[in-house]
């Protein structure tokens, strides 16, 4: 979510954004009318820009791009050089995608390597080269057997290095302290960097990216500083052992890359609509590198993040996602030349009867989603409204300290969360040394490695169960407080960890039940003695999918990401059953996913495509002015003086004014933007002679007939949008909402039998929707 | 494409569709104004239906569904029974998906089994049970070695059965004749069945489904008869050995299933918009079973077939596609419990240098696509315009005879096309008995089976190359003539076969080049002697993707389908390189894919989402009436008599009339549909007393003030759409096109300063677009 500092900045900005304070000049490129205007001058600087924290007009952006395209196409016939330039322009989309893929993949690889090293740094250091992680350090060591590799002499725990003790209580305490110290150091560094250099680098970024992609301007949110600081601090916070993931922030990082590269090409940098196409693709690349799942990434971008997703974008997103995935693979941070984060391979199919525990896991995921969203939103609201929000550094330090203190004693919380998930997903092979695989083996077993029958659980498994249960409770609680602090934080990994722990416990339970009760009617058909019937790792995976689904309400993309992790269509049915159940359970308690909830909390003007508007209201109920309010401020086409208009602009704060034939007939002829009016008048007063306060302003083609001694009139037709969008007062609001959504309008005028009645802005629509849903309409803050 | 008979029927229908001839009654449910009307009577029968070969109004359908939903929600609070009914209503979407998946999967399985059997029937018969295919027959035989299984005694060729000869010239000729006879019989049966029972069952169906999904009515196109006949004839034509596939028709079959099941639930049967959501999902299920690729199917539906694809549909499509895939797998028609049609597994990676031949294959695919589309469209146009179209049965017989005569002698064309593709895709293992794998083995080889180094080609490979080259030329030519005949015919499989043959030949070429010239600079780095560097099967797959891409212009869905076939992300890069190249090459010669070309040929009103409109025209250039034409036919709100209106209706054939305040002011108050006007007047004349030809008709709330002795006036407000869509005359056409596309309008009124100027219909937009693209605007036939 947007950090408080940033939000504060935004509010200030909004409150004080007086005309003329910010650069606010653009001319003649309103929705579609650009080609009709009589340009007096060359275009002013900052053509087609928007104010910060304002909504863009999609139709107008599209129209401007078509104009640009038309110009290039017609020029391309003139000379070979222009033709080459037009080809370059056509190719620039692909070039941008390639660059995004390369940079996002590289950054993801670097982050993975750095996190690896710094996570291990909390426990010890490599003597041969301090920049080696534990695994790299011992890889080069001479101990070649599998068990000894973990204890190679080159890798020294802090206690060994500092007091030369590797066992015993004092060594343990020393290591414990070092662990906490490093965690605190990393967290402090991260929060300070974010605070000082890039306040927008905090949070997961997905709510804001959703809002930006829906057509909103948040300047600097995808800037170069944000990119740099978010990358660095992401490494720090993940290494600090806090209960957060790097997946959401990676999407933000990839979008920053997208924004950076799109600023290199005028096609994208000068058009907010086209820029958003690039950002959609960048989001896909981000998920692609986060999980190593390019198809899932594209679907995630389509389903969850993007707003307008033309088919051309689909193809390019796919390209960017693939390039990113292959770049990451060639960096090979996991050292196994696998693309995916959690590579698993199961050897047994699943059985119908197992659907019951899978659906139970789905219910658990839905409940967890509800609990997390409610808890987290309540806590974030408290942070926004109470003193708590004033001490972000202290908050991070305290949460880090609590996390480190509680996490260290438990082996399942001490290690990094993604390692934990990986271990929980894995099937127990014969050589597995993990405590979770401490089964009692039949010494006479001669089966091949990948077909081990169900075995009774050993002591290790029972210990692991206890530790997992404690870790689960701890994760659930701490994640609610962690997500939303002023550091980069994603929640994919913590959610998956919660689900994986619950799932693994259920899985082991079912496995032991099946082993000890082969004769029960539910097991009799598919689980004979000596068969390998239950795969606890699969339960962990199903649980992870359920919990992730409960929190984010992803559907297809979730299943496809999980499918890409396992690579087998076999397990899609369990995953789907759990995902559907979890979504239904969570939806029963509240329709909003965590991202929508945070968008809502921050008051962004986000018109969700998924919400359905089902009320019976009409345009006339929503439009301004309401009954009893003063009439709509309009301009007349040829009877107001410059002074009249200046007074009107000064006295109101509307973004634009409808232009009518006369106040009596109220017949609409167009719409003039406030920014453009101000600029045009200022310009005319400076440059055009004879323009005084008494000059008549006219929007028609021909000047009106004036008395002989009246001052020179001012023609303003070029700032007039001749094709404003209108609906009649009887139009049902569901149609109006649909039009706003599909066409991406900023405002829409309301008429009755050709007479202008009022205006509806996007903010009005959102406030009306909030009111209909019994929410506070004032929560929508931006226009 | 639509068969000629059907098209003829359509044309007749259009020409004679006088008011009142067809059932044309629906009332009060126009876009959004339904809730405002003063219903005099209960709704008339056929509420909300459309005429055949007409365009639907998406906004209105959506509005009607919201009304329905609102009604159910408010009722559900009244009693438990209503609550259960509302739950059932909410669930019906999932139930429909489940049913579609089950039926589509079952039908696909049955088709596969029947095709297997009937294809083999052309060559011989099983003695133990005549309904066994060759493989099933010999499966139960006692010969257990792999080579002998093909020659099991229970399976008898026709020559063996009839004259007891298995070798020799006369046996060959007899088998040849039987092959041709069976093929002719199958083809004759198929074309006769199609002709007599279901003319719509011909073609691939995808162009029509695209048109239907974009909001067009073709009654009976997805009917039960079409479903039945298409399923049966599909088996016949595929078995007859014609150069066609079953993939496109399977999409049609699945959509028929979708239509059938949606007719069981009033939520879908009574709303053309909702019905199309179901059909989109059914299309996904169709591709899912055609290739065993559920994710690819969903993306195909999204990218290629669907028009409006809300996110809810994505999730449901995925569900339907999965259910269908699993149903197919449990029927297990391929006998290997594999889901996919062409299962392949390669053991070697690809190398950078191989990208060059892959891109060459892409160029070939693009050229093939262009050649095929041009040739096929030219031939189909000739069929439409010359005598040729009058002898569809003869045409099928002749093409079948030619195909059978030429195909039999060549082993690569004699077998079924999907077997051919499967063989071409496969890597040569050590045990492979295929001629294509007749390499000269090194007798000292001790390597494992899946790591065979490159070997010199043997005689068999060279023979196979020649035969493949001949088969390639034959396939290219015959497919152009086959696609579009009056039988079900898909072109996925023939296109893939063309590409696979070309690819395999290139692959073998590169392999032999690499083997014999290890020292060339291009091979030196990655292909040392004794290494397995080139996989000819991969080239076949890349070629298949390129050719399919060239013909259909699929992008993401193509790559994902291919990816699901191999299951390895490794090969996505070659596939993508070929798909991108092929699309670019083909696009350079013409933007239309085969489906769009057929839509165009048939004159359907299809507003492609992918086309970009980049011309500088304005709404005023497109609207009717044009300059010099008589003024727009309008109704006034309270001054026309019933007779005036009846005359107007009789003299014009417009679909509706704008209603204005008065002819002088021309201020728009609404829009009245022709059908509804006719019905309302008829109804009033029958039921309401005092309504005569002289009665004044009024659309206002209150009756106008009339002289004392005037007849009783007729109130028609309830047929008035109070929220017609308007744009100003200065609106650029690119915006108008965008609005038509995104909102799914039928017509749009044009105003200037509140005065009505004219009207733009979807047909006008399409004709204008055709004109701008230098095409014949009259080719758009339907409204």
User: What is the number of E strands of chain A?
Assistant: 12
Number of domains of chain A: 3
Mean residue pLDDT of chain A: 83
Architecture per CATH nomenclature, i.e. the level-2 architecture of the largest domain in chain A = Orthogonal Bundle
Question: What is the CATH superfamily label of the largest domain in chain A?
Answer: Clc chloride channel
Please give the share of residues in helix of chain A. Answer: 55-70%
Beta-strand content of chain A = 5-15%
Largest sheet: spatial strand order of chain A: 3-5-6-9
Based on Cα principal axes, name the global outline of chain A.
Answer: elongated
How would you name the oligomeric state of the polypeptide chains in this document? Answer: homodimer
* Largest interface chains and counts: A-B, 73 and 74 residues
CATH topology name of the largest domain in chain A, in short, is: Clc chloride channel
Q: What's the CATH class label of the largest domain in chain A?
A: Mainly Alpha
Structural class of chain A: mainly alpha
Give the radius of gyration of chain A.
30 Å
Separate helix tally of chain A = 30
Described by strand count, sense and barrel closure, the largest sheet of chain A is: 4 strands, mixed
Unreliable runs of chain A: 1-43
> End-to-end span of chain A in angstroms?
18 Å
Subcellular location (chains A, B): Endosome membrane; Membrane
Protein name (chains A, B): Chloride channel protein
Main location (chains A, B): membrane
Organism (chains A, B): Panthera pardus
